[in-house]
Specification:
- This protein is α+β, with helices and mostly antiparallel strands and about 140 residues long.
- It has 4 helices and 6 strands, in the order H-H-E-E-H-E-E-E-E-H.
- It has a single domain, classed as Roll (Nuclear Transport Factor 2, Chain: A), CATH 3.10.450.50.
- It is about 30% helix and about 40% strand.
- Strands 2-1-6-5-4-3 form a 6-stranded mixed beta sheet.
């Protein structure tokens, strides 16, 4: 059995997308998403839920999520990538500093990207939402 180091087009697409996320490059992110893209984030964070359509993913989710991090601090450390044809499963560590709290953000993610015709079509994102809530959202006294 031959071992190859070639990257599939979908893995390259997802890698490019994650790099653009780290730069908070909204035009690049928009270019990589399908027009009918969807993004799901579980949990009970203010940004949790299902976003359907490129405009909702970009404006409703990605821009809102990016605003939670101090500019220039967001980065991703890839740990594992599984190429399953039209699905790419990525495990990574997200690192940044929260704007609202000034706390360091260090969260493990597992994200499933479904790709179609050279674009990202569906994303399902799993992470420690308790940590995200603690670092990214200021607690207000009642």
């Amino acid at each position: 059995m031959a071992v190859t180091t070639e990257t599939s087009p979908n893995v390259a697409l997802v890698s490019e997308f994650l790099a653009a996320m780290g730069r908070v490059d909204i035009p690049a992110l928009s270019e990589l998403l399908a027009d009918d893209a969807s993004w799901w984030l579980g949990g009970d964070l203010p940004v949790s839920g299902l976003y359907e359509g490129k405009d909702a993913v970009i404006g409703g989710f990605l821009a809102s999520a990016a605003a939670l991090f101090e500019p220039g601090t967001l980065g991703f450390d890839l740990r594992f990538v599984s190429d399953a044809g039209d699905r790419v499963v990525v495990e990574y560590i997200g690192k940044a500093r929260g704007v609202a709290t000034g706390k360091n953000y260090h969260n493990a993610y597992c994200t499933i990207f479904e790709c179609r015709e050279g674009k990202i079509h569906t994303v399902r994102e799993y992470l420690d939402t308790a940590h995200a809530g603690d670092v990214l959202y200021a607690v207000t006294a009642s």
